[in-house]
Every structure is written in C-alpha cells, then in structure tokens.
Amino acid sequence: MDNMNYSRFINAVSAARKLSPIRVLTELLQRSSPTMISLAGGMPNPDMFPFECANFTIKGGPSITFGQETMKRALQYSGSAGIPELVSWMKDLQKHLHNPPTANYSPEQGQMDLCVTNGSQEALSKVFEMLVSPGDTVLLECPTYAGTLASLQPLGCKLLGITTDQHGAIPQSLSDTLSRWKPEEAKDPSSDIPKVLYTIPNGGNPTGASMTAERKMEIYQIARKYDLLIIEDDPYFFLQFEKPWAPSFLSLDVDGRVLRTDSFSKILSSGLRIGFLTGPKPLVNRIVLHIQCSTMHTSTFSQILVAELLHQWGQSGFLAHVDRVIEFYKKQREAMQTSAERWLKDLVEWNVPSAGMFFWMKLKGIPDSHQLISEKALEKEVLLVPGQVFMLDSSVPCAYVRAAYSISTPEQIDQGFQRLAALIKESI
Ligand code: PLP
For residue 265, which atom of ligand 1 is closest to its CA? Predict the structure, then answer.
C-alpha cells in the first residue's frame, strides 16, 4: 500500500510554519528532571501569582485538590500539544474506543497522533486553515454546523453540499457530486478536484442524524477512490443513546486519511474548553505548529483539572459518567418526542434522533421559517433556531427549525411546543 502524500493537502500558509524555538524549550522543560536548572524560556515566576490552593468537589466521588505545587504548574505555560498525562490518557481512550488501524503505523505512514485543543472548534478552524486555499472546493453535509460554515466561508472556498437524510450524508449523493471529476485528477496539482470532506457522523448539528456503519464504510471507500481527507467532527459521539456505538471513521482508517475532532464540551464542561484532534502525525504536527504561534496551548489549569479527574476515574469511571449523561439526554429526548406528538403532529415533520441534543423539524405549509422564528416566536416567548443558518446558501428559503432538548425542563419543552403550534396555526 502506498503512503499518503500529505504534502498534497497542506496549503502554502501551513507549509511555511516553522517550529518556535521558545515553545520547543517549553516542551523540553515539561519533560525534564526536577534537578534541571533552567535559565531558558521566558516563564514568569509562579510564586508571584496570587492563587495558592484549590479544592474541587466532584459529584458522586472524591475531591480533587490543587496543592501549592500543582497550582503553580496549573497557572504556568505548558507544551502546545497538551500536558503529557492528558495526551497519553486520551490516546489510550482513542485506542480503546476506536482501535485505529494507524495506531501502529510509522509516522510517514500516517501514525495516529493526538493533541489537545481549545474545544473541538479550535481544532476544526485550524484544520480548515491548514487544508483549504482560496478557490478550493470543500465537500460537506447540507445542512451543517453553523460554526463550521463560519470557519470555512472567509477562506474563499466553494462549498459543495451532500444531501442528507436521517442517517446523515447519502453516499450516492457524494458519488454523484464527485462524478464531475475523474479520480486520477487527484494526482494532478492543477486540478480543482476536492480534497476535503467534512462530516458530523453522530447526532448531527442541526439534524440530529447519525450515520450507520454501512454508510461510513461506503463513504470511506469513495474517499479512497478520490483521495479525500475526511474530517470527522464528532462532539456528540459520547451522546449516542443506543449501544453498541457505530464504528467511527477513525476506526476504519487504514490509509491515515481521517482527522477526528472530539470534545468534552457536552460531557464534562464546555467552559473549560477541552477538545482533541486525532489523526495522522504529519498533519497533527502542522496543527501543533499553528497552536504554538496562536493560543500557545489549551489552558494548563483546565487540562490538569480534567487529567486529575480522568486519572481518578480511570476509563471505566469515565465511561460510567458518560452513561449517566446519556441517560439524562435520552429522557430529555423522550420528553421532546412526547410533546412534539402532543402539539405538533399535523404541523411539523421530524425524525427522532438517536444521539445528540437536537430535533430538526420541517414546518408544513411554511416555506421559510426565518420570519416566524426570528420575530413572531420571540413575541410568543419561544426560542428556536431558524434552519437557514445551517444552510450552505443562507439566501435560500428554509422550512426547518432546530429545537434543542438539552437545557429546558420537560414542562418547558411542552409549553414551548404548545406556543410553537399556536404560532404555526396562525401563520398558515
Ligand atoms: N462541532 C459541532 C458539530 C458542534 O455542534 C460544536 C458545538 O456545538 C462544536 C463542533 C464545537 O464544540 P466545542 O468547541 O465546544 O468542542
């Protein structure tokens, strides 16, 4: 099997990134012995920081204490790829959950690597900035996550939408879209053949759709045929309600063509900003170079807090926590389903999501939800997101709305849908 030619995917800006000598020293210090005398680097003296100790009470478990030494470390700069104990814990988890074929490859073959990011959003935006040049064509599901559109649109690329249904992207639609190019064009640097496919495989935002294993396999084969990189944005992976969980693209990745973003935002905290990028080492390395000169690293404080919790829990404790979170969201989903049946049955079409936090609802007899949701719904005191914001072309009318069952109580959901039903009846 030929190795992937990663330089084909990296744009000129990313290719020009160089190691920061100061950041290399920081990495070195992170790994050096306690007897090392460092006159290098520009680290401030943490003795001058005002925070001394902290104690975090953990629901249902022992507490985490930041003594003086841990606190000093938590308040200090750290390596750009993430603190070693969090990186290694996560690598083990990825191996356990996804068993990536690339785990034992050599770096040139696209060996699996991982870095910590400020939520998955940082990983996504940096991945796009590494891969996309003005004029490129990027393939993605339509509709898709508004934060991805916001990252991609300023890069001057064309967005080509893949049709979706309740199981996510439809492989035939991807094949049809790509049929205007010949697979051999992937070897021709002057061709405008797409190089990147972005997908949300579970509990899609906004559709709630989850891709089946068969579809993933079909899409992976199409990606091989056209030499596409797959960006697997999976923040709702841990909110899959049915077990066994579908295999990820990472778990199918025999070539080293998958860049996977994970997030702790939906299960541990969104404000701590902890996400992960997993993928072939040559590409993860490029992202770390970008981190070096932008955010420098994800908050050391957040990373240590999360790493301490994960080490205390172990993998089984972590997965038991995930199960508790799933139970909560599953009940919320059921509450939304019951209320939708009660109030919206003849007014709206929807599919019941098997993961994530969203119902994607098509308003019958209302070709464009925008005005209804942005103005009239506000007056009636019910907030939803008009579907338009998730469309590749936001000027096209959209009959859909996104309803989240994450925060509201079942009573509030019920009242919200009652208000929405009244609104729709007034408008058709
Ligand atoms: N990707 C998708 C599909 C999302 O829905 C979100 C957040 O809602 C993100 C990425 C970013 O999440 P975070 O940066 O908090 O990990």
Answer: 15
Number of helices (H) and strands (E) in the chain: give both, helices first: 14, 14
**Centre of ligand 1 from the C-alpha of residue 356, in Å:** 11
The model's pLDDT over 126-141, given as tens digits with 9 standing for 90+, comes to: 999 999 999 999 999 9
> Which residue's CA lies nearest to atom 5 of ligand 1?
205
Ligand 1 atom nearest residue 145's Cα: 3
Token couple for 175 = 């094949």
399: nearest Cα among 425, 424, 426, 364: 364
pLDDT at 390: 96
Please give the distance of CA 145 from its chain centroid, rounded to a whole number.
10
- The pLDDT score that the predictor gives to residue 38 is 79
Could you say which residues of the chain have pLDDT below 50? none
Ligand 1 pocket, Cβ-based, cut-off 6 angstroms: 119-121, 145, 147, 200, 205, 233, 235, 263, 265, 270, 275
> Which atom in ligand 1 lies closest to the alpha carbon of residue 233?
1
- The CA-based dihedral angle spanning residues 218, 219, 220, 225, taken in that order and rounded to the nearest 10 degrees: 90
Q: Which two tokens stand for residue 385?
A: 């997101």
The Cα 342–Cα 348 span in angstroms is 11
- In one letter, which amino acid is 327? E
Structural contact between residues 222 and 174, judged by C-beta atoms closer than 8 angstroms: yes
Taking the whole predicted model, whether its pTM rises above 0.70 is answered as yes
